[in-house]
Specification:
The chain has twelve helices and 18 strands. With 452 residues, the chain is α/β, with parallel strands linked by helices. Among the domains are: 188 residues, FAD/NAD(P)-binding domain, CATH 3.50.50.60; 41 residues. Helix 2 packs parallel to helix 7 and helix 3 crosses helix 4. The longest helix is centred in the N-terminal third of the chain and has 25 residues. The structure holds flavin-adenine dinucleotide.
């Protein structure tokens, strides 16, 4: 269980499971942000709809209750691809929609009385080696050609005014990001959709999705529309084994830092914090004065196995702890309170997608890689429009209907992911030990193999 749920006193009180067969207008499989945002907008736009959410464990059990709490505006897979396939204006529209979705989530929180510890102080990404700094400058230059990216480059002194990270040579900041408490958001959202009349059945695993049908051991739901919102767990569904690759991400959280440590670190506002390493880290300052710090541990398990419980190997905890203490020597004496992992969905082309097949009534959204906290809101909003047949600007965004090819069979997937992450780790080590601004050729090779 994530520290976020522990902070709320553990898993929420269980909701009833499905009890026999049921008819509905819309059946949503998966009770994370994607499923719940879809239900939220559907119920608000058409209150008469019979909407049922089927959730294997409990609402917020997956990545939605475990993430780093960056409500940020990333276009998963990058804008360039959409510029190539749909034109520059479409890529800009995708960016603007994600910028707006950050504020939309904050707006819904205010409207529905969800206190998710939200604070919109932007996103700070630091460079801690000459190669990272060169990559940051290139990236910032290309970002500045896109309206809506709104990046600012900071030198070492300006960065230290915001957060003092040891060894930082400079940073990039943009304003379209809020820090949130992930479990508070998902818990509040589940309660909000129930108030709107949506039924959430927990402890109900869907074994198979077919047109008009979601089949479980506890009964079958028949519905005009069935939406797959299972993200990193998708490979466990019949027929979906190679659709998305389940990638793990792990986090640790410290005990609250003493005031003297915060004085040294700064970080008075709450920008989220990342870096320009290939195996990157992500962190937030929590509302109660801890550091929550994440990164890749064991990225992938053979055969797309998913460890639903999120158990974190000791050496992952050690390596994240070591990195956290190298970032913040002032936190070296502060104990680690908890560690956990979660699973996210990676499409073969690393680009997120949302869509509805009109002929079958089957909808889907996911493949957000590590950036779904905001995109799930846009996806849920879009799915609601698609189900209701609305022709909105949202439904014309370039990620709508996007399909990637399937992943290769094993052992190729395992070999490729292992090779790619091994190469990224070696590239990071080489870059940290060198004064050269050149990105390690190993990282270029890994980019090529992964299709990233
Ligand atoms: C450790 C970690 C850190 C992250 N940090 C960030 C971050 O800071 N910012 C960001 O933007 N993104 C982050 N992400 C990604 C983000 O959390 C996800 O993209 C997002 O939560 C996806 O929401 P979802 O509803 O699609 O999937 P999930 O939250 O995973 O929900 C899927 C749900 O489906 C249920 N389910 C699965 N199979 C079945 C079945 N067969 N039948 C019924 N129910 C089923 C699961 O139990 C689960 O509750 C992070 C992810 C992880 C794991």
């Amino acid at each position: 269980m994530s520290w976020w749920w522990r902070d709320l006193g553990g898993a929420p009180a269980a909701r009833a499971g499905l009890d026999g067969d049921l008819d509905a207008d819309v059946c949503i499989v998966g009770g994370g942000y994607t499923g719940l945002w879809s239900a939220y907008y559907l119920a608000r736009m058409q209150p008469s709809l019979r909407i049922v959410v089927l959730e294997e464990r409990f609402a917020g059990f997956g990545a939605s209750g475990r993430n780093g709490g960056w409500l940020t505006n990333s276009v998963t897979g990058g804008r360039e691809r959409y510029a190539r396939t749909h034109g520059r204006h479409a890529a800009i529209a995708q960016q603007r929609a994600l910028n707006d979705a950050v504020d939309e989530v904050l707006g819904v929180c205010a409207r529905e009385g969800i206190d998710a510890d939200a604070r919109k102080d932007g996103e700070l990404t630091v460079a801690r080696s000459a190669a990272q700094l060169a990559r940051m400058r290139d990236f910032a230059a290309s970002e500045s050609r896109w309206p809506g990216a709104d990046v600012t480059v900071l030198d070492a002194a300006e960065t230290a005014e915001r957060v003092r990270v040891a060894g930082t040579a400079g940073a990039m900041w943009h304003p379209h990001c809020a820090r949130i408490h992930p479990a508070k958001l998902v818990r509040g959202l589940a309660a909000a959709v129930e108030r709107l009349g949506v039924t959430i059945h927990e402890g109900t695993r869907v074994d198979e999705i077919l047109p008009g049908v979601a089949r479980t051991a506890r009964g079958t739901v028949r519905a005009t529309h069935v939406i797959r919102a299972t993200e990193g767990f998708t490979p466990t569904l019949r027929g979906e084994h190679r659709t998305w690759l389940p990638m793990n991400s792990s986090m640790i959280v410290t005990e609250p830092l003493p005031a003297a440590a915060w004085d040294e670190i700064g970080w008075r506002d709450a920008p989220t914090l990342g870096d320009f390493a290939h195996v990157y880290m992500y962190a937030q300052r929590t509302a109660d004065g801890r550091i929550a710090f994440g990164g890749r541990g064991v990225p992938y398990r053979y055969g797309s196995r998913v460890d639903g419980e999120g158990t974190t190997p000791e050496r992952t905890v050690e390596s994240l702890t070591d990195l956290l203490r190298r970032f913040f020597p002032a936190a070296a004496g502060v104990p680690i309170a908890h560690a956990w992992s979660g699973v996210l969905g990676v499409p073969r082309d690393w680009a997120a997608t949302v869509g509805l097949d009109r002929a079958t009534g089957l909808g889907w959204a996911g493949g957000y890689v590590g950036t779904g906290v905001t995109a799930t809101n846009l996806a849920g909003h879009t799915l609601a429009d698609l189900v209701l047949g609305h022709d909105a600007e949202r439904t014309r965004l370039p990620w709508v209907g996007h399909r990637a090819r399937r992943w290769e069979p094993e052992p190729l997937r395992w070999l490729a992911v292992r090779g790619v992450y091994g190469a990224y780790r070696r590239a990071d080590r080489a870059e940290s030990a060198s004064a050269s601004p050149r990105t390690s050729p190993l990282a270029h090779l890994a980019d090529l193999i992964s299709g990233h």
